[in-house]
Amino acid sequence: MDLPLVTLVFASILTFFILKLLYNQTQNSTNLPPGPRPFPIIGNILEPGRNPHIALTKLSKIYGPIMTLKLGTITTIVISSPQLAKQVLQEHGQIFSSRTIPHSAQVYDNHKISIAWLPTNAKWRKLRKVCATKVFSPQVLDSTKVLRQQKLKELSDFVKEKSSKGEPLDLSEAIFSTVLNSISNTLFSMDLSHTTSDEKSREFKSIIEGAMGDPGKPNVADFFPILRPIDPQGLHARMTSYFVKLAKIVDGIIEERMCSRADSKISNDVLDSLLSEIEETSSQLSRKEILQLFLVGT
């Protein structure tokens, strides 16, 4: 096949997809709320700008409290009044309770087992109950009050030490370590981060920051799902790497804890409570779900 023919075939395919996108945009606009006229292909993706809350407020004054935005190929309905928000989220909460799952979050079965992404089905209710009774219950919070106070004292001592030595301090990093260790001690009775800048601690903190931050980043593959297989921004690949590393860490902690439980060593933390529930009730709670509970706590 010579070059001119290849070019012709490619141009024909590209033209077909462009026409299909334009046709879908026209067809899908029927019976939708008003909104700014979308550009071909990109739609209204430029409308939100760098300050979406300000841009949407201005648009609502033009098009009303309910409007349509075409973000790439994704049709989005924006609600901007308290009355309509109450009607949608409270009176029809069951219908609108699910959420769009970013492509970067669809890794390691995350979207199938995470309480953050599941629809309100039986599995979601099971995990929500575990969170309410084993992670965020008043009893658990009261029992870890001393631990939280201890971690705050460690943070205060660390800041004082840096100040007395006249050394620079990244306060946000120190606070992040304190919060992370408060959670990891509640769940696993161990520190997973340190205020000292050792390589292992920095790597772990970067994994947590990435796993929590990347799903919230704008991703072109979410606006143009046809691009998902090539993952143009690499967010899906990075999230896969984060979760594989986190799973390895959590699996190691669980294995170590199960060995210590076999020797009758009980830590009375959240992990012990979960393992006891699995043993006593034949619960189907998996290690992946325990990892998700750790991320929810974080």
TrEMBL record:
GO molecular function terms noted in the UniProt entry: heme binding; iron ion binding; monooxygenase activity; oxidoreductase activity, acting on paired donors, with incorporation or reduction of molecular oxygen
InterPro entries: Cyt_P450, Cyt_P450_E_grp-I, Cyt_P450_sf
Keyword check for Transmembrane: yes
Key words of the record: Membrane, Transmembrane, Transmembrane helix
Annotated Pfam families: p450
Gene3D superfamilies reported in the protein's UniProt record: Cytochrome P450
Segments passing through the bilayer: 6-23
Superkingdom of the organism of origin: Eukaryota
Family assignment from sequence similarity: Belongs to the cytochrome P450 family.
PANTHER family noted in UniProt: CYTOCHROME P450 FAMILY PROTEIN (PTHR47950:SF30), CYTOCHROME P450, FAMILY 76, SUBFAMILY C, POLYPEPTIDE 5-RELATED (PTHR47950)
Protein's UniProt name: Cytochrome P450
Organism name: Lotus japonicus (Lotus corniculatus var. japonicus)
